[in-house]
């Protein structure tokens, strides 16, 4: 690759400085001068504005801002431009540089809102405090939060109504549906809470901040959806064994209402209605999980309606078929999200950086004169987009550690590893 | 060196620790050599022993559960009773929870790969999280069943049958709980193992050359259950390493996360069985008071949820990469700043991979003239001594 050749040359030729010019300083803003040629950046996935894997690409306002950002080198862009290259996941990719449709509610709310707890450690908040802070958070939250709050309240109202009607009229089907909805509401409330709580600043106990909560809530949502698909499969098996298609017609009304409410939710989060999404920040996972949740609920309701329609048509085993189909569909839809969130929680290496990029950095560090060995290189992701790593370097005695540190940090910063701890040992 | 067993069967080993300065290439920085991964040979053998003991327990529990479940299924089909079949389904969920715990235990022993650079220890935590979610789900299902029982007109619900089935389930669950929670029975074997491990500890101390003086450790085989008594012969300020080694062993008596979550599952089930028994007894006695059954179930479900909260909090803290409870970050920072040549500490992060395995990363700013090597040595030694964190990455920066 060109840059490697260039760096080797500079190593040989220049005796004054032992290192190739750093690609980006630790502040991450400067565009390095004298970049010889366009660089093939192996960590980039070569996406452009029209790429539909991005959640935001459907928003027309994003396309405008993207074209604007082509001329403005401060916002992160993909590497196909002809201007000097900037790393995609850089420190300047903060919440300020997000596309406009989020800045509306988000930018304003962000500075205003802060939960009172700072540095209190493991203090327990009372329930009342939690509720009050939640209400305050929703009011100052961004648009997805408000929409989620609206959806949750709709669902809660609907499920309590269903529960009451079911208990009073003695219909078990309504009660089971109400329970299912209540579980879902509880999960959505946890998602909402994590959206609010993840904006807290890092404190002493949670030194990395609270952003992991979003990944956690996405994981819990995905887990619940997997449980739901298993239970639907069990229900299908049950219907198959029992072979009695006693059909409960009153469930149709509830299924239709459920479908409508959930389709409204899907419309709210329509930017995330995909199975495979590239996650750029923590909220992406949370929104995606909420969208998949309402999507699966609507698939389930649609399946129930379909089953009853088939039954009236006289198709045998319609319930089994439809329930089985729904179960398989939900499972396939949720599995990528589950794997991605599980990977982050298991501290896997960052998903958007290929292993060859890491080994290339390894080789570049080992190629330095004073470095004899690099070991214990560990990388993990706190949330999508924020990678953290640690490294152990054996250096010859008497070598100047400042420039080496600087170089290694710059190297890994380009990959997107923002927080790197390098331990240098002298042999 | 061990003296032969005396009348009170004490095993005494005396080891002399070489004073510091013998660091050589190893020193204290590269723990166990250049191949130090998160589990070097010493800790991995301890881990493996603990893991196989836990796996054995869980395997026995699964086996028993499957036997009881098949008894119930056969009985339920013969008697054509939905209640018995429902209880069999609950036992099936127990089996599922045990299976999750077994899988997590087995998976956490896998070797680290480049993609999973910290090893697979986190799988334990995720498995425990899934287990607890299952408990919550089951509590919800039981409440739903209670409401369904309420709705169905009288005549469907037989108090006697409910009571009998719940009693049987309770007995099964209590056997399981005793099996999973029982730590004392293997005291004899454990002491044997601890003897090996303790001598390894002393070897390690010799390598690292940190502790001074002679420490005598007596192992009382048989009687003392939870504490090893370590009496340093010479009261030396630096002998805290042997004390911390002893601390490690008393802490090891903490149950493994997965066994603990399976235990919680079984405990929750037995609490629910008690609730159903009370409900069945009430319905048997006075079939008109069906609402009490629902109230009972609700109360007991809430109790079950409360038992899971402590474990859930621990899991959440690990998953959020927060500072573990036993480490006081302010004291750590202050202590590090007080070391000479250290100007400032920043970006201090302490987090746990799983309960018990703690890592630390920080940036230390030192004065311009100081020797980075000695400062690194001191910092790592301090952290290891005071807080017993052995996997540490320190970045030394000059002012």
Automatic annotation (TrEMBL), chain A:
Topology in the lipid bilayer:
Multi-pass membrane protein
Q: What stretch or stretches form a coiled coil here?
A: none
* Key word Transmembrane present: yes
Record's compositionally biased regions (Polar residues): 72-83
Q: Its Gene Ontology molecular function terms?
A: zinc ion transmembrane transporter activity
- Which Gene3D superfamilies does the record match to this protein? Cation efflux protein transmembrane domain (1.20.1510.10)
Record's subcellular location: Membrane
Per UniProt, residues of the Cation efflux protein transmembrane domain are 149-346
- Read off the SUPFAM superfamilies from this record: Cation efflux protein transmembrane domain-like
What does the record list as GO biological process?
Answer: intracellular zinc ion homeostasis
Its chief place of residence is membrane
Q: Name one GO cellular component term.
A: Golgi apparatus
Q: Name one Pfam family in it.
A: Cation_efflux
Q: So where does this one cross the membrane?
A: 148-172, 178-197, 218-241, 247-269, 290-312, 318-338
Q: Where is this region: Disordered?
A: 1-46, 63-84
Give the keywords, sorted.
Membrane, Transmembrane, Transmembrane helix, Transport
Does this UniProt record's set of keywords contain Protein transport?
no
Q: Which PANTHER family match?
A: METAL TOLERANCE PROTEIN C2 (PTHR45755:SF3), PTHR45755
Which NCBIfam families is this protein grouped with? CDF
Task: Supply the name of the protein.
Answer: Metal tolerance protein C2
TrEMBL record, chain B:
Cation efflux protein cytoplasmic domain boundaries: 324-398
Bias-annotated ranges (Basic and acidic residues): 186-210, 225-236
Its localization reads: Vacuole membrane
Could you tell me one molecular function GO term of this UniProt entry?
A: zinc ion transmembrane transporter activity
Q: Where is this region: Disordered?
A: 186-236
Major subcellular location class? membrane
What residue intervals traverse the membrane? 58-77, 89-108, 120-147, 159-180, 262-285, 291-312
Q: Which UniProt keywords apply?
A: Ion transport, Membrane, Transmembrane, Transmembrane helix, Transport, Vacuole, Zinc, Zinc transport
Question: Residue limits of the Cation efflux protein transmembrane domain?
Answer: 58-320
Report how it sits in the membrane: Multi-pass membrane protein
Looking up InterPro entries in the UniProt record yields:
Cation_efflux, Cation_efflux_CTD, Cation_efflux_CTD_sf, Cation_efflux_TM, Cation_efflux_TMD_sf, CDF/SLC30A
Listed under GO cellular component are: plasma membrane; vacuolar membrane
Q: Which family does it belong to?
A: Belongs to the cation diffusion facilitator (CDF) transporter (TC 2.A.4) family. SLC30A subfamily.
Task: State the name under which the record lists this protein.
Answer: Metal tolerance protein 1
Record the organism.
Elaeis guineensis var. tenera (Oil palm)
């Amino acid at each position: 690759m060109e840059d490697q050749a260039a760096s080797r040359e500079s190593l040989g030729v220049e005796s004054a400085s032992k290192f190739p010019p750093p690609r980006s300083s630790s502040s991450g803003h400067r565009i390095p001068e004298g970049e010889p040629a366009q660089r093939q950046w192996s960590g980039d996935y070569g996406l452009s504005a029209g790429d539909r894997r991005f959640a935001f690409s459907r928003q027309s306002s994003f396309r405008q801002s993207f074209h604007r950002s082509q001329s403005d080198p401060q916002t992160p862009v993909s590497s196909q431009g002809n201007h000097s290259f900037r790393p995609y996941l850089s420190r300047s990719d903060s919440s300020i540089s997000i596309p406009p449709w989020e800045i509306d509610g988000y930018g304003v709310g962000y500075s205003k809102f802060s939960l009172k707890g700072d540095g209190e450690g493991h203090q327990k908040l009372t329930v009342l405090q939690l509720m009050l802070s939640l209400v305050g958070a929703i009011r100052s939250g961004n648009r997805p939060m408000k929409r989620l709050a609206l959806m949750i309240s709709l669902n809660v109202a609907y499920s309590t109504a269903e529960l009451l009607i079911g208990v009073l009229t003695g219909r078990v089907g309504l009660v089971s549906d109400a329970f299912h909805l209540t579980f879902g509401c509880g999960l959505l409330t946890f998602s909402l809470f994590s959206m609010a709580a993840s904006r807290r600043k890092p404190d002493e106990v949670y030194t990395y901040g609270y952003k992991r909560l979003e990944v956690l809530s996405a994981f819990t949502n995905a887990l619940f959806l997997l449980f739901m698909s298993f239970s639907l499969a069990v229900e299908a098996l049950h219907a198959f064994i029992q072979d009695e298609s006693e059909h409960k017609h009153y469930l149709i009304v509830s299924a239709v209402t459920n479908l409508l409410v959930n389709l409204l939710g899907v419309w709210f989060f329509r930017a995330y209605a995909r199975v495979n999404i590239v996650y750029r920040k923590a909220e992406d996972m949370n929104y995606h999980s909420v969208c998949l949740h309402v999507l699966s609920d609507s698939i389930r309701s649609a399946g129930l309606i379909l089953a009853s329609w088939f039954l009236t048509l006289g198709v045998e085993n319609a319930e089994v078929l439809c329930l089985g189909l729904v179960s398989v569909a939900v499972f396939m839809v949720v599995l990528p999200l589950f794997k991605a969130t599980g990977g982050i929680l298991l501290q896997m290496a960052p998903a958007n950086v290929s292993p060859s990029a890491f080994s290339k950095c390894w080789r570049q560090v080992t190629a330095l004169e004073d470095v004899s060995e690099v070991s214990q290189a560990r990388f993990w992701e706190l949330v999508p987009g924020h990678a953290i790593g640690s490294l152990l370097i054996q250096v010859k005695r008497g070598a100047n550690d400042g420039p080496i540190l600087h170089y290694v940090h710059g190297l890994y910063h380009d990959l997107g590893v923002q927080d790197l701890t390098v331990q240098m040992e002298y042999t | 060196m061990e003296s032969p067993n005396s009348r009170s069967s004490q095993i005494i080993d005396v080891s002399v620790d070489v004073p510091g300065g013998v660091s050589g290439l190893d020193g204290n920085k590269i723990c166990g050599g250049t191949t130090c991964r998160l589990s070097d040979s010493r800790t991995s053998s301890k881990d493996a022993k603990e893991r196989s003991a836990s796996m054995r327990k869980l395997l026995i529990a699964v086996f028993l559960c499957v036997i009881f479940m098949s008894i119930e299924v056969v009985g339920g089909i013969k008697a054509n009773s939905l209640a018995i079949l429902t209880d069999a389904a609950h036992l099936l969920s127990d089996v599922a929870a045990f299976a999750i715990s077994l899988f997590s235990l087995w998976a956490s022993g896998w070797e680290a790969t480049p993609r999973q650079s910290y090893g697979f220890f986190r799988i334990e935590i995720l498995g425990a999280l899934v287990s607890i979610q299952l408990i919550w789900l089951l509590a919800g299902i039981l409440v739903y069943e209670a409401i369904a029982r309420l709705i169905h007109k009288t005549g469907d619900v037989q108090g006697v049958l409910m009571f009998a089935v719940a009693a049987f389930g309770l007995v099964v669950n209590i056997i399981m709980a005793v099996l999973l929670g029982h730590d004392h029975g293997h005291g004899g074997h454990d002491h044997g193992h601890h003897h090996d491990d303790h001598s390894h500890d002393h070897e390690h101390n010799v390598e690292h050359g940190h502790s001074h003086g002679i420490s005598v450790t007596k192992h009382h085989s048989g009687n003392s259950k939870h504490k090893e008594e370590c009496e340093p012969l010479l009261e030396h300020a630096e002998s805290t390493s042997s004390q911390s080694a002893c601390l490690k062993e008393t802490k090891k008596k903490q149950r493994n996360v997965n066994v603990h979550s399976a235990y919680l599952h079984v405990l929750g089930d037995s609490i629910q069985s008690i609730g159903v028994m009370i409900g069945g007894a009430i319905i048997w006695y006075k079939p008109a008071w069906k609402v009490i059954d629902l109230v009972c179930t609700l109360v007991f479900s809430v109790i079950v949820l409360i038992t899971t909260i402590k474990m859930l909090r621990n899991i959440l803290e690990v998953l959020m990469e927060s500072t573990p409870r036993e480490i006081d970050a302010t004291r750590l920072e202050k202590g590090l700043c007080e070391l000479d040549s250290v100007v400032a500490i920043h970006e201090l992060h302490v987090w746990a991979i799983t309960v018990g395995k703690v890592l630390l990363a920080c940036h230390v700013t030192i004065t311009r003239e100081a020797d980075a090597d000695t400062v690194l040595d001191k910092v790592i030694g301090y952290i290891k001594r005071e807080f017993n964190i052995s996997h540490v990455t320190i970045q030394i920066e000059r002012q």
